[in-house]
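Exercise 7. Given the encoded structure of a 121-residue chain, write a plausible sequence.
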């Protein structure tokens, strides 16, 4: 059970890193997106600065898991981590592509999935 917990802790830090990166991407691509919480004040530069700081901080946290560092893990958690991410990639390639970003992107993605299921039957 310890290996599973160890491998999931690395996954959590990777997830934090991805969320921080997406925070920056959304700030640049969708500046007018409705947000329940304003981060960084009214200017775009403040929000991007917060996002960059979050990316740097989580990258430093991830560096703790590198062999030779204080939170170094054995080989088994890394094997479990790799298998878990491989399984995630299998699910990722099954998501239909070609759905452009926008307010109704989720609805269009669900329509494509429904079309795929109906054509498969």
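Solution.
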């Amino acid at each position: 059970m310890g290996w599973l917990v160890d491998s999931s802790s690395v996954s959590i830090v990777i997830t934090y890193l991805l969320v921080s990166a997406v925070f920056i991407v959304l700030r640049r691509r969708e500046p007018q997106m409705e947000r329940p919480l304003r981060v960084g004040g009214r200017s775009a530069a403040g929000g991007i600065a917060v996002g960059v700081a979050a990316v740097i901080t989580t990258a430093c946290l991830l560096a703790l898991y590198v062999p030779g560092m204080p939170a170094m893990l054995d080989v088994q958690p890394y094997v479990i981590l790799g298998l878990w991410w491989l399984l995630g990639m299998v699910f990722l390639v099954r998501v239909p592509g070609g759905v452009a970003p926008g307010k109704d992107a989720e609805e269009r993605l669900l329509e494509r999935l429904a079309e795929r299921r109906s054509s498969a039957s």
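Remark. The two ends are 41 Å apart (CA to CA). Students should compare their own answers with the one above.
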